[in-house]
Amino acid sequence: MRAARVAYFPDSFHEVNGVAHTSRNFVAYAMRRELPLLCVRAGTRAEAVDEAGTVRTLELGRSRASVRLEKDLKFDAVFWRHCDEIALELERFRPDVIHVTGPSELGLMGAYFAGRLEIPLAASWHTNLHEYAGRRMGWLRPHLPPRSMAVAQRSVEASTLWLTAQLYRRAAVLFAPNRELCAMLERVTGRRGNLMQRGVDTAMFTPERRTRQANDGRLVLGYVGRLSIEKNVALLARVERELAARGVRGVEFVIAGHGGEEAVLRRALVRARFAGVLRGEALARTYADMDLLVFPSHTDTFGNVVLEALASGVPAVVTPDGGPKYIVDDGVTGVVAEDDGFSAAIAAVAQSPARLGEMRAAARTYALGCSWDAVFDRVYAGYETVLQDCKGDAASQ
What we know:
Layout: E1 6-9, H1 18-33, E2 37-42, E3 55-60, E4 67-70, E5 73-75, H2 83-93, E6 97-100, H3 105-117, E7 121-124, H4 129-135, H5 146-168, E8 173-176, H6 179-189, E9 193-195, E10 219-224, H7 234-245, E11 251-256, H8 262-268, E12 272-276, H9 280-288, E13 292-295, H10 304-311, E14 316-318, H11 324-327, E15 334-336, H12 342-350, H13 353-368, H14 372-396
Helix pairs in contact: 4-5, 7-12, 10-13
């Protein structure tokens, strides 16, 4: 069977976030499999040539009118100026399906062209934008009573989810990183959600990159990701204080990432090294030198960094909200705990070297069973299903 020709419109590609990480691996997968794929994305970088010639790139610059959403993420309301250029490239490529990753300017344009070309739209859910919007209402807290604040947050979340769902309702096939989000998409769109989990490079992220000496007297707790309100990073400072009160010695944080809460964290944490944004081997070594990954986010749809930590032989402590709880086997590859229980969970593991050793081994074993190829094989199976359905509908008319 001929492989589907896919035009991919990712929200981000070069940035440091889950969508970009998945998108780079998706393009790499298409190159490895020599699958016809056109990646339409924002950026200004020169790309390596695909020797097989099956993967093409259209990289378009954002304007100065772009609105900054995060330190390295923007929205360009006048991105439509590239419409003719995109139309020409799509005409040359002749896609069977267009895949978008969210309601960005790229996602909206992808949906527009899917309708214009009368081909199926695929949409994958990567970011809980509605929850992010609700948490960013925190600036109102000093001005509203608690009950009114809660009502305001719920209202913002509900309206943002409704708006986002308008894009996903137009898709013929939907993907999400966990069953909980598949069910949510099914509820708000009336369409079936398919799993599109994440994979990990176990050759890059491995315990073999550990450089720390054994029994050096330190308990290295790591965090990797955006330093933003919705990531609940304020909990890290609380954990440090509570571990000190419990008499846990040698605690040291290593923070990899950037964001608006960095200055607050620098003031709040007593013993912490801020490594900035890390990639490749530098990031892999940083993971491997941790004892535990402390990931307090309640809003992540999957948690790439959690899987990378497990591949590095580093157990993770995560919350019972969002996607990371589906990665961590509580008590085996890490701990799932409420915010109030983070410190106790970390202390319990830290005070039992034998248990920590067992968790490290189990974390690595679990990660070895995850691969990007398996993830994207399932995505292409989803494309084929919807394309076959379209052929059946056409034949019956």
